[in-house]
Amino acid sequence: MVREQYTTTTPGTSLERPKNEYVYKIGIYGWRKRCLYLFVLLLLIILVVNFSLTIWILKVMWFSPTGMGHLRVTKEGLRLEGESEFLFPLYAKEIHSRVDSSLLLQSTHNVTVNARNSNGEVTGRLNVGPKMVEFHGQQFQINSKDGKPLFTVDENEVVIGTDKLRVTGPEGALFEHSVETPLVKAEAFKQLRLESPTRSLSMDAPRGININAQAGNIEALSQMDIKLHSSDGVLLLDAETVRLPKLPEGTRGGSSISQGLYEICVCPDGKLYLSVAGVGPTCQEYSRVCQ
What we know:
This protein is α+β, with helices and mostly antiparallel strands. Helices cover 10% and strands 18% of the residues. The longest helix is centred in the first third of the chain and has 30 residues, at 31-60. It has one helix at residues 31-60; strands at residues 63-64, 67-68, 71-74, 77-80, 111-116, 122-128, 133-136, 140-143, 149-153, 158-160, 262-266, 272-276. The radius of gyration is 51 Å and the shape is rod-shaped. A hairpin with a 4-residue loop joins strand 9 (149-153) and strand 10 (158-160).
């Protein structure tokens, strides 16, 4: 142990201070000092490198007080300009484009838009794939710019709200079940054809059916029978000429002078046939046609 000695003097006296036998130097010297300077220099280098990297990242990512790159933070939300790529799902309440440009969603596989409820369950899904567009939901509806429903689909029915439905395919439209419409009309200068290849074709209306061809003919073709039935009214054929070219012609024994005139006879079952006209009625003479 080193013991330090202290000498006190009174004013007016002078005493010689004893010489210290041991002298201590305060500070860091030698290899410790060099290591400290090296450590400080290393910290300065790291600080400069980090600062340079930070400046480089801010410059590359286009950081600014209003956002980052093409992403701007506004009062209404986030504004993204140009093309962007999202590697993970994007959650947003509303997505819309600028006024002078369209909104494009593009993917190498498919684009899926999901709507979820408060519990996180998917209530609606729109999937745009490379081969088809699928929609999963309770109802699918397309509206006009005025909010008028143009096309509505649900589990029960399909409603088309436009004033006119136009089918331009060469094969027309194929319906597996019934169709309810107030008007079926062909395009101008085109033919309208209603056909049931393997089953029957039925047209029902509570207040009448009107078939009109303003500049052409109306043809009804059938492999079997064509029936025109009216329960309460009459069957009216209103035309200048009514022709039945393939009615069977009755025959009778003997010769008669018909002068090219015939009578139309009706059998009890409703069958029509022709009889050679005479001075009096001749239908009874050909009654065996009804047998």
